[in-house]
Amino acid sequence: MTAVTALGAEMVDPAGAPVRSGSRERRRPFAGAWRWVVFLFGSVFFLLPLGAAAEFSFRGRNGHYSFEAYRELIREPGFGSTLGLSVNLGIMTVLLTLALMVPTVTFVHLRLPRWQRVIETMTVLPLVIPPVVLVVGVLGAFSGTVLVGSPSILGFEYVILALPFAYRSLDAGLRAVDMKTLVEASRSLGGGPVATLWRVIIPNLRTAVLNAAVLTLALVLGEQVVSSLMLFNTFPVWVVQVSQTQAAVSVAVSLVSLLLAWGLLLLLTLLGRRRGAPPVVGGR
């Protein structure tokens, strides 16, 4: 069998005949240039509107630039209360979503792999069902309870809306790890179901869990339709109300919310940096 040795840009065999590299090798410099073109185009596409919005929010009434819109934002009635309500609802939604989805998705992957398509289809339904129908359904489910009339009922509504994003994040994390082998190893070491979930499954799904949590929290901080239909004054509803009278303040609020979301994504990246760590297997 003829051996081929790489030499610079060409390849030669023992007889000395050059073996030309394929057309794919010749096109690599152009592929690298196209990546930069796409990157620059995407950067301009996303950053140019943000820069225009920032310039508008800093422009004062007399044409001079100042932080007046941001100072008015802090002094605006309802800013602190509505933001606190949305943050509390976000924490509640994240805890409920993870407590529901992590055991469910894990059980489906380990015991019911044939039902994955069915579960995936079911989690897509909140994207196609109108918000009015979801609101009526949740109100009917909690009819006669103390949650009706309380802002806490929005947390259960948001859990339904977050199902598509949380499920796909956790599903991708489970597909990237041989969870069946890890669970069997944990059982052989004497770990029970709770210990296996807490000490084996969740540590190996750290990035996926953080991803689901950030997506869920971002959804709660930006959802306005359901809370408006249920007549609760959350932070997104307050932003819409302010935008009707003070355009600069509303743009400033939008930029602050966007920076908050970017900060959460940066935190996710920092916490999930240990991708190369070995799988965790724990017993009792």
Molecular structure report:
The protein has a 3-stranded antiparallel β-sheet with strand order 1-2-3, with no helix packed on it. The protein is 71% helix and 3% strand. The model is unreliable at 1-14, 21-25 and 275-280 (pLDDT under 50). The protein starts with a strand and ends in a 13-residue tail after the last helix. It contains 13 helices and 3 strands, in the order E-E-E-H-H-H-H-H-H-H-H-H-H-H-H-H. The protein has helices at residues 23-26, 28-58, 68-75, 79-111, 116-128, 131-141, 153-175, 179-188, 193-204, 206-222, 225-229, 235-243, 247-271, and strands at residues 5-7, 10-12, 18-19. It is an all-alpha fold and 284 residues long. The protein has 2 domains: 5-58, no CATH class; 78-271, MetI-like (MetI-like fold, Orthogonal Bundle), CATH 1.10.3720.10.
Topology:
Elements: E1 5-7, E2 10-12, E3 18-19, H1 23-26, H2 28-58, H3 68-75, H4 79-111, H5 116-128, H6 131-141, H7 153-175, H8 179-188, H9 193-204, H10 206-222, H11 225-229, H12 235-243, H13 247-271
Antiparallel strand pairs: 1-2, 2-3
Helix pairs in contact: 2-13, 3-13, 4-7, 4-10, 5-7, 6-7, 7-10, 8-9, 10-13, 12-13
